[in-house]
């Protein structure tokens, strides 16, 4: 009985702290999805092979999501010249006008896509919590899944390893 209580407590602590899940070599490939950005541009994830990609699911009413937008902007500006792409996917329940207003207010330079039918959330494993980040290696494998606000230095180290710095 005590062991169950301890294990349950550890599971809850990991959940609420936003555990990093570093996947092993041979980890699952990224899903074959096509995003549509706020400006109508279509981005095929498979077409980005050869580049590291961060796919981040977010919502305009998520405090952690808003907190990390400046960090994502910094990552994009620092590593986009080396090939990094970032796609921020607004959750299906987020009103598009809120997403557009937040994108403009924060000056987000990377791609922002809507997921009105929750197709992308389902393709990435039925995403329901935000923020959640998927880092995709240039070979198309998901090498990191992170629920919760990411730690900037750890994310930079991972991106640098993927871009060869």
How would you describe the overall organization of this protein?
With 165 residues, the protein is of the alpha/beta class. The chain is built from five helices and eight strands. A six-stranded mixed sheet has the order 1-8-7-4-5-6. The longest helix has 17 residues, at 63-79. The radius of gyration is 16 Å and the shape is globular. The relative contact order is 0.22.
The succession of helices and strands, N to C, reads HEEEEHEHEHEEH
Summarize model confidence as the mean pLDDT: 87
Distance between the termini: 49 Å
Per CATH, which architecture? 3-Layer(aba) Sandwich
- What number of domains? 1
Radius of gyration: 16 Å
Structural class estimated from helices and strands: alpha/beta
Number of helices: 5
Helix content: 25-40%
| Portion in strands | 15-25%
Residue ranges: pLDDT <50 for 5 or more in a row?
Answer: 1-26
CATH superfamily: Glutaredoxin
């Amino acid at each position: 009985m005590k062991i169950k209580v301890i294990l349950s407590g550890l599971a809850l602590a990991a959940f609420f702290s936003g555990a990093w899940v570093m996947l092993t070599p041979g980890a699952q490939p990224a899903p074959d999805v096509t995003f549509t950005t706020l400006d109508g541009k279509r981005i095929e994830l498979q077409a980005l092979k050869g580049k590291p990609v961060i796919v981040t699911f977010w919502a305009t009413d998520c405090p952690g999501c808003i907190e990390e937008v400046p960090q994502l902007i910094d990552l994009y500006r620092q590593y986009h010249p080396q090939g990094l792409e970032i796609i921020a996917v607004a959750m299906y329940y987020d009103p598009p006008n809120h997403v557009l207003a937040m994108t403009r207010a924060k000056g987000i330079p990377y791609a922002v896509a809507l997921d009105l039918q929750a197709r992308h959330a389902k393709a990435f494993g039925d995403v329901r919590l935000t923020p959640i980040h998927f880092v995709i290696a240039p070979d198309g494998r998901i090498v990191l899944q992170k629920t919760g606000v990411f730690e900037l230095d750890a994310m930079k180290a991972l991106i640098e390893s993927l871009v060869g710095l």
